[in-house]
Design brief:
This protein has about 325 residues and is of the alpha/beta class. It is built from 12 helices and 12 strands.
């Protein structure tokens, strides 16, 4: 049985680029390896204990899940910060699981994300917000999600677990809906995942659970009932809901995730110039509640991570 998370310690995870937002949406979205490294390092300096990383094609900004795309920035971030590095296995919803898992399988990070169920993954409603796009791929990429199911079958989840667990990598279990918590409990019952479970509740993606405060409470109540003291709860709110949901979760003893993957904003109508802007805002909320932002060392202890010396980059 896992021990409860220390009271008053809040882990900030920062997701710096992701695969949702396209280059047209913000001039500050990190695209090149230099930009991704700089944004991640800045977020760590601002207080992020975990850095959640995707890669992109530096010319077009398209999501790129080849291990080679991660190679230019992983060692630089590791050398410049003490933050735990979290490599996505989500990649892009258009990718097959065999492609999505390759960077985590190659680099054996302390943490890898793992989506816990299939969902509709709607980004099409973002396309009409922009009259023109920088790259030809962006508008079709968004509009095609009207008919997109982000596949994360039980077989896919088992494949990622089997591929990565022998490396000592632990998982950020991304739960976009209540059923995903039941899926996690299923894998826990089978002994395929070990506590403490790092549960990242995702709110506000079209196709997943909403952003109402009752949605947040429903996620927490369900996780409490299914997982007891065996999990560490974190939240991410998409778009404008980012900091409101972060504040609610922190007040309830949870952890928070921010970054330009999840939201491009640093206040109403104001684009964040970097992920560190959002980390600083989250930190202000946490400290205003009388809590302390967890250091990377504390985050490793809370989540039972293997340490930065045991990765393959």
């Amino acid at each position: 049985m896992a021990t409860p998370q220390p009271q008053g310690k809040v882990i900030i995870t920062c997701a710096v680029t992701g695969a949702i937002h396209t280059p047209t949406m913000s001039p500050y979205l990190p695209i090149t390896p230099d930009q991704i490294a700089a944004d991640a390092i800045g977020a760590a300096e601002a207080g992020a204990a975990i850095l959640h990383l995707h890669a992109r094609d530096p010319e077009t900004g398209k999501p790129d899940q080849t291990p080679e795309a991660f190679a230019p920035f992983l060692p630089r971030i590791k050398q410049a910060t003490d933050a735990a590095i979290n490599i996505t296995t989500g990649g892009s919803p258009y990718m097959k699981v065999e492609e999505r898992v390759l960077p985590a399988a190659t680099y054996k990070p302390e943490v890898a994300s793992l989506n816990m169920g299939s969902i509709n993954f709607g980004l099409f409603h973002l396309a009409p917000k922009y009259d023109t796009f920088k790259h030809d791929w962006e508008k079709p990429h968004l509009e095609a999600t009207r008919d997109l199911v982000f596949r994360n079958s039980f077989k896919d989840i088992e494949y990622i677990l089997e591929t990565c667990y022998g490396n000592g990598t632990r998982f950020e279990f991304e739960c976009y809906d209540i059923a995903h918590l039941y899926n996690l409990a299923h894998f826990a019952d089978r002994g395929l995942v070990k506590p403490p479970f790092f549960v990242q509740s995702v709110f506000g993606l079209l196709g997943g659970i909403g952003t109402h405060p009752e949605d947040v409470m429903h996620m927490k109540r369900t996780a409490d009932r299914l997982l007891g003291t065996d999990y560490r709860w974190s939240v991410l709110g998409a778009g404008a809901s980012q900091l409101r949901i972060a504040a609610q979760a922190a007040a309830l003893g949870g952890n928070v995730r921010v970054g330009l993957e999840d939201s491009l904003w640093a206040g109403k109508g104001k684009l964040a110039t970097c992920s560190a802007d959002q980390v600083r805002m989250a930190r202000q909320i946490i400290e205003g509640l009388g809590m302390t932002v967890a250091t990377p060392t504390e985050a490793r202890e809370i989540l039972s991570l293997k340490g930065g010396d045991n990765v393959a980059f």
